[in-house]
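FW: tagging you since you asked about this chain on Friday. Here's the raw sequence from the shared folder, copied in full. Didn't touch anything.
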Amino acid sequence: MGNYLIRKGVASNNSQDETICNRRKANIKFQDLPEDVQCTILSKLPLKEVVRTSILSSEWRYLWLNCPKLCFDSAEISRHKRCMKKFIDNVNVVLHKCHGDMVEALKVKVGFHTTLADHVDSWISFAASSRIKVLAFDLEPIGGMRRDDRYIFPFELLNNESISCLQSIQLSFVSLKPPFQFGGFPNLRKLVLSMVHVTRKDLEDTLSSCCNIELLSLDRSHLRDELKVDTPLFHLQHLRIICCEITKIQFHAVNLDTFVYMGDLRPIVLNHSRKLNDVSISLCEAIFQHAVASLLNSLPSMKHLTFHVLLLRIEMQGLSNNPYKFSHLRKLQLFMNIHRKDADKILCLVSFLRATPLIETLEVVFDCPGSWFADVGPTRQNLERYEYSHLKSVLITGYIGAKGQVEFILHVVENAPALDVLTVYTVTRELHEHAARQVAESRLTQKHSPTLKVCVV
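HL: got it, structure written out here
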């Protein structure tokens, strides 16, 4: 009886498994899936691949019309007029056939010419009527910096509903002239402008109305004036300004997390940004001490800093303690392009280091052409003693045996009691590489503590 019951139970389980397997083998077609699932799957594929699925089956012929992301890139075709016409025709055909209510993103990359203006207008009109969330038009042509015939963005094609739907805008080689009393983009999260013509007032008014913006990027967009946005942008977390002719930058962004700037040394006012985490500053030309003083005034609360000056000049002053401090800085990365005439001033870098009382990680990348074993400059004994009590890791790259480099490294080692790791990379593939490495090893062997890990490569 018991055995029968056991066997019966097993048979019953096998029967149930077969039923489940049969269900799994049910003939479920792609077009049987819910429309939102189809859109999710199609959105993972490039538009070209999605369109190609139409030849696989007559039932799949129009599936691509449900693609939520439309991306067109003219870089994939020849620049011949005939090929460009085909590209334009393809875009027009796709937009004409697509279900506008299904489209969430429209991205177009094509070099602008005035003959394209009407076509671009119609594409933006499609975007407005489709109430898309992501609008990206990269219209930068070859040699665009030498041209002024920007595409004039058609604000008149947008209504309040389409404006409120936009969450991301990326525009390149465009002229922005918003209408009088333009209300901005209330739900915009991301704004990326490259090579854009816009006045200071129009840009400031537009940004002041983007109360939910989280990322702002300006690239080669010349105001030739200051950019000052006093309206609090509480959601702004990422600010990027690259190669823009702007005389002053000022934002009220209390939750700013990252800031990237590349250009000339200009006043930067971010006094309300107490949560700054990562900052990257790349200057075309500057005096080292002036640049450091400017950073102390404008960005005192950052935690991580990458600092690079392409054409760097160093003054012999600045070895005394600075009354102002980077009181939150934990990681400092310096790219130092030092001309051989300033080889005697390398030790002046200490003035920057002394302004970072809580620094834990230091990386210095030297580029000192023509300064191999330069035996010039002061010694570390001329400096007042200063302890870097939190410094744990130091990485030196581009070491060439110059006296200033040796004195700087020894000063750090002797004044950082918590230092765990020191790594020094000499310039490779040079005749003096081996000799420079020997100098560093011999000097450091005498100075570092037994617990410090030293690696000279």
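FW: The first strand starts at residue 69 and ends at 73.
HL: agreed, and Residues 30-67 form one domain.
FW: great, closing this out.
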